[in-house]
Amino acid sequence: MDTPDVLAWRDGHIEALDQTALPHEVRTLRLDTVDELIAAITSLAIRGAPVLGAAGALGVALAVRQGQRDGWDSRRLTAEIDRIAAARPTAVNLAREVNAMRPVLADGPDAVETAARAALGTAERVSRQISVRGAIYLKDAVNKKRLRVHTHCNTGSLACLGWGTALGVIRALHAEDALDYVIVDETRPLLQGARLTCWELAQLGIDHQLAGDSAAPFLISQGAADAVVVGADRIAANYDVANKIGTYSLALAAHRAGIPFVVAAPESTIDPDTPSGSGIPIERRPDEEITVPAAPTGTRAVNYAFDITPADLVTAVVTEERVVEPQTFVR
After folding, report:
1. How many domains does the chain fold into?
2. Is the dihedral of CA 17, 18, 19, 22 positive or negative?
3. Which residue in 185, 213, 226, 233 is the catalytic one?
4. Does 185 qualify as catalytic in the annotation?
C-alpha cells in the first residue's frame, strides 16, 4: 500500500501515521517528547499490539534523547519510561518491549536507538510468518476452495508495521486465490474496522462487506462465514484471549455455529506471567467515546476497550512459531 510509514525513527524523534485521521486524511505525527508519545498512544493515533510494542521500544529511545536535552537524572528517566509502559495496560506488547529495552540503557543512547530500530523489522517479519501459518491452518480446517472470513477491529499493516496478523492471514488466503470475501465488523465505538480495515482491504482489492457489531453473531448463525479470525492484545498462559471489545460475542457465535475461531498473534502476545484471563487488566476508556454526540448530557457509560474470550472457545492460536488448539486440552 502506498502510505507513509506507520512508525519510524527519524533524527532523534518518532514519526507515526495518525490512525485517528484515516480513512479521510493521511497525516503523519512528529513526536519529540514522552508526553506527545503517550498522548498518541492513549488517543489511538498509535494502536495495534505489534505497533504498540515497537512504539514502546522507540519510546525508550525518545525518553533517553529528551532526558539528555532536559537534564533528567536516572530517577526521572526511569519514571518516564514507566509511564510509557503503562500507557495501555491491556496490551502486553507495549510493556514487554519497553522492559526489553531497559538493560540496554547502560550502553548509551546510540545502543538504545539501534535496539529500538531492530524492533521495527522484527514486527513485520513475525506477522508474515503468522500469516502463512494461519492460512495453511484455515484451509485445512475448513476444507473449501474459497473461504468466507469474518474479522473484527484492525489487524493489518496499520497495526503490524507493513503486513498484518489476522488481516495478514486474510491477505495470504487472497494471494492464493483461497478467499471468497471478508465480513468486517465496524468495531464500535471508535470504528477501527470501518475506518481502518475496510480502507486496507479496499487498497488491497479484497472483496469485503461491513457489518454492525450487533449484527455479527446473527450473520455467523446464518452461515455467512466459514471462519472467524481475530488478533489479540494479550493471551494468558491458559490461552484465554484479551482482544477488542466485541470479540467474545464472535467466539460464542462461532462455537454455536461450529466454525473455527482463530486468534492470530505473535508469541510475544502470550503472557506466561498471567495464568488466566481473570488476571488481565481491562482498559476502561472515557465515557465520551460512547455518549457523544447521541446521549443526553450527563449520561454515564460502561466503555471497556477489550473483552476476554475463554480458551475453550478458541479453536486455534496461531503464532509465528506454532499452532496451539486450546479446545483440545481445555475442559
Report:
1. 2
2. negative
3. 233
4. no
